[in-house]
Queue: 4 jobs
Job 1
Amino acid sequence: MLHLLSLKALRERLQKREVSSVELTKHFIDRIAKFSDLNAFISVDEEGALASAEDADKSLTKNESGNLTGIPIAHKDIFCTKRLRTTCGSKMLSGFTAPYDATVVQRLANAGCVTIGKTNMDEFAMGSSNETSFFGNVKNPWQTSRVPGGSSGGSAASVAARLIPAATGTDTGGSIRQPAAFCGLTGLKPSYGRVSRYGMIAFASSLDQGGPLTRSAEDSAIMFNAMGGFDPKDSTSIERPIPSVNELLDLDLRGLRLGLPTEFFDSSVDTAVLGSVREALQILEKRGAQLVDVSLPNSAAGIPCYYVIAPAEASSNLSRFDGVRFGHRSEQADSLLDLYECSRAEGFGEEVKRRILIGTYVLSAGYYDAYYLKAQKIRRVISDDFKKAFEKCDVIVGPTTPSTAFKIGEKTQDPVSMYLNDIFTNTVNLAGLPSLSMPVGLDGSGLPIGMQLIGRFMDETSLIGTAHQFQLETDWHERCPEDFA
């Protein structure tokens, strides 16, 4: 039952030589093949993974191992890898293999991780359900008729189904935390600039941030410590040391002030979600935390603000995919202009096209001031709301999502309804703050419920530490979908 063990437990087994990295890697490769119907993976590198596992075993034999030596992981298929193709879940890049590894990939490899494969995702990270992928939708292992969340749905589903111990994801407006909530995982979105974006294919450059999807806060601390830190190759990277694993976990909750925004606890949230969040807050209170009321009065403006800024940046970032330099090239073109038009029409899916059109519109002459500039002003107001709230509290707490996982196909014809799934998460990206989602219960249908913690800029310690103290008292993070135990 190796797949049920945490990163810490697997590390202990490997260091005691109770299991080899090759055996462990084979175990997870077999599980990925067994549960391929989840469609959680786009690419699996069996040969490369086993070769890396053999190297890890040699390091373990020489006692040259680190926290993650020999442990298999997977990367969201938005991180460039020189051994495996990087598709971004799109036809546009379905045949692209990068000539280099992303910094996150390289750092985790340096920490001894064995990369098994690349996980499925919403096309170019645009989506909240993992239904926009060119490679088909991912299924939620808790109920396969439900979505796993997006855009990091493949990473979330693979960890929840115990196909892999941990995986990387990216979060632009909630794309780590929302799938973590839907799949019963701990998902960390670090502060903007904490994790290098070098080699992470850009969706919205001022919002994107990489982070880990794991089962527990302890596992998140181990992954974050390995993948974070300053990178001179990333101009947005911040030169601040990453705390040690022990520093991230060792938090005394006595006197910690938890802020409850009135805007996060209204009638729009499912009653089961609110009930589980309130029960979780009671547990944290018993550990010494104090509950205080705060307000984020402009949080309702987060959705329209986000869906002006993110598409605007996406339209600029995706302009490079023109059928000439790299990516899909149409064979129907008769001229250079035809080549651009046909390649992009064939290579991009409907949701990506929708966001490119929106972004191009809000940046166009005559509309820039009315939309994009105004959205940037609202972004500053939203950031100021958080600063005022943190004068009264240390961590802001609320539901991660308004509901549990919805059915596949339920919201595909209603983009606005789909966008509203990120109503509690995207303001965090607009402000550049760290945030974490952790499992706090199950609804009446047996679907996971997530609670979100939001911290001050660069204060991941309070989030991981709070989640860890909660998980010492509960076992929601240890729950596994019945068919995958």
Job 2
Amino acid sequence: MTQRIQIEASVHQSLVPTWNAYTLPEHIVRWNFADVSWHCPSAVNDLCVGGTYRARMEARDQSAGFDFVAEYTEVILHERFTYAFGGRTCTVAFLPEDQATRVRIEFDSDGVYSVELQEQGWMAILNRFKAYAEDSAFVG
């Protein structure tokens, strides 16, 4: 049975740079993996309703890999987007805060792995995103 999972992080960066870091392929490849033993060698993002998001995830030792592919069902620029993947959906919202942007992700569990394990994996990626977007070398 599918359960809705929500995670979030406050990114100390203004809205537009946060949005750009999350949605532009040249940034996605720098943060979109849960553990340093993996990486994201390529990403394509056609951010419009009906558009496709595709990110290649691979173990650095090339022992495993997969393509994460989704189709956008809703896009509200600089506010939120929703995409469908494998019979599930995910919504990512960008909420302006005082000198920061809260990124809230809500997604359907996969019904295979525990909710806790899925939450930990998605949160690890979100934390990697936060660190990337807050890095002093990042220019959004």
Job 3
Amino acid sequence: MIAQLLVDNGGLFDSWLPYAELRTFTYHFGFHSAVAAFHWIIGASMPRATLWVGQIVNVLAVLALYPLAVRVGKSRWAGFGAMFVAGLLSPMPMFYTNWGRYTQLAGQVILPAAILIAWMVLEARAHDRRLLALAWLAWGGLALTHYRVLIFGICFFAAYFLFEARRARIVETVRQIVWMGVGGGFLFLPWFVHTFGGKITANFARQLTTPADAVSAWTQQYNSIGDLASYLPMTVWLALVLAIGYGLWRREKDFAIFVLWWFFVLLAANPRWLRLPGEGALSNFAVFIAAYIVAGVVLGAMVATFRVSRFTLQVGLLVLLTALGLWGARERVLEVRAEPHALVTRADLRAAEWIRNNTPANARFLVNSFFAYNDSVIVGSDGGWWLPLLARRQTTLPPINYGSEQGVRADYREWINALPR
């Protein structure tokens, strides 16, 4: 719907009409703008364009690990290893297809590049304006694409500063970080100011300032880590732990900075461990469905440390990796399960077309819904949620953004929730 509104308005917008009765738009829009551009190029319908761009982003999320892994592992084999692990051995990011969680995935396409460029700026011996400008674009783009993934990236600066800020370079390090922050922040500033028109910024500020002992039981439950095997196979988790231990024992500086960065990301999602406020601002779920990044880079870096010189061993290793890759490819394809996850089917598309052709334009439909997020909003359970987009008819269920945007009345969220209650 956001991508369709971008096309309808020729760019950014405030009003969600005619699809929803919302008066502000403050959500991040990187993925949606890519969908709009794809639609403009090939002319596909918006639902189909969204699916296509989702898969493109899914592939790019794996390819994006290559240069960062090469930096950490000091070898091209580290890059290939990272893509092998994330693309074939890990259920993520492939599993994002079932959720349509492509907005976060789009941020995670930019994240490795933003980290790598920042790293290059921080370690450049001379002031490189072109590299700095590239850092501004990467970090400004990341901020516009996904707010939570931006927090992932910011944690890198804390890790780098803690590990690398020697007395001789501390002023230069701080200066470079500030320069990158100012440039990226300047690109993001107009949109950041705009977000105050909705509720996203206020909700985030409230989460950041809630003391650890005042966090609700629901928030603690919602932020629980859950089953680790649902994010990565347990064999990969075990290999990851062993690889981290081995890499730290080897005292590789870049490897240690990378691992420390991801540890800080984990702490950012769990500030209660340190008795700090902010629980819920960054969820463990968002962090662990991105665990393919750390698994790919770390295990890829470990692959680069091994050298096989004998021809017979090289052939045996190639056969083993091929078999493992084919098995992983089969597992990844089987994990795309439309039946339990999809809301709209071909039958729903036919029904939407019938509704569009046989009902008045001002008709309003009562559609199926259920309460979510501690009963704060209602969400759809079938294709009825899509009727405003597919049939151009109003329903009793706006997009989930109504919980963070301004509606046509001051009590819009409560008014929407009252009917299903």
Job 4
Amino acid sequence: MKLIRGGTVVNGDGSTTADVLCGDDGVILKVASGLEIPSGCDVLDAGGLLVMPGGIDPHTHMEMPFMGSTSSDDFYTGTAAGLAGGTTSIIDFVIPEVGGSLVEAWKLWRNKAEKAASDYAFHVAVTHWDERVHEEMGILARDCGVSSFKHFMAYKGALMVDDGVLLNSVSRAMELGALCNIHAENGDAVAWMQADLLAKGMKGPAAHPASRPPSVEGEATQRVIAIAGLIGAPIYIVHVSTEDATAAITRARAAGQRVYGEVLAQHLVIDDSVYQSDNWLSAAQHVMSPPFRPKHHQKALWAGLVSGQLQTTATDHCCFCAPQKMNGKDDFTKIPNGTPGIEDRMSVLWHHGVRAGYLTPEEFVKITSTNTADIFGMTSKGRIVEGADADIVLWDPEATRTVSAATHHQNVDYNVYEGMTLTGLAHTTLMRGDIAWKEGDLRATRGAGRYVSRKSGGSAVDALKRQMAGKNPLSVA
């Protein structure tokens, strides 16, 4: 047993001074002030600290094959780095080959993830449509604990699906009570612009954002919202990076449509000036999709989080080291897309969100943990309450560090926040009651993470079914 004593417990719905007793089974037993110390119990002094639910990153790519490379963080190194930053669970992505089996791909990713140091779940990508996909979505939802499916509207010729696949897959997911995630960029437009830029001799990293302007994200976001609206299905838009996409989500929600939006911490604080560096590698290290945007888009993203129109924060953690980025030295379309971030997300959001006055501590907990748990059916996580998993971070709101690739725990040779001084750090991270990080000492255990099986038919789907059954005037069907 462990007793966390003397801290301020912060949940998404309020804060209170209380002790937290964690059982040997990794579950929170009691949350109350003045708890007695049970015999043989370890006591953690949380005086001056905030006791919060561990972060949940809903968007990571550990050891993912992509664009001729494999992302450099595996499920152990990536989740261990997350624990150092206060993140205790991830939702990663199973990416089947086009034409391949979804179930076999899920089994492959389960095997890869057995080394994870923190708990994990999976979204499964739908990359094509046929009767086997229809059947295997059902198997995954009923028997494998998968309640969310991913769709790429980008990466033409590789992962991109057309509107017909979206209609079939979103409809099938709705039948199963599952939620569809969407990478919303117009892949046909991106492919055309890439070819045009290359023909004009623009081959460096600066051509990457030019090939994916905000309008291609805005158009795709509006289109998939319309498709989901035809079916009456909830939809979740990943890595919203523009004012255009935020506005489309806000309009849909105002009309009664159940649309969720995710923001990457990187997009909130880094702008497209990084692509203008004279250092080719530095610019290439920031190549991700969607790309970093002109600074004015950040205002819309923060406003979306503050107003609740955007609900979650993630990292799209997908690391590639210098030799891998160099694959695109003569052609920007061959630079592997992705940046690191899992270790720094919580501190970036505290420093630039809470300390800057955008967010309250309670709102911080919502967008880093609780909302993801609720949206994706991680029912035992996201709150410091009796019966929840003892995934807990003791947060020091005044501690400061300067970010550097020389000291981070991510298995990658750069950091997009290099040199940024952040206030607000994970003092101690507990995963199911065990200390995985304490005051700079990483104690993450290889293989300690568990697969989180999620039930289909979450609150978003159930609410829409009630809307349609009752002919609610806000129904989008």
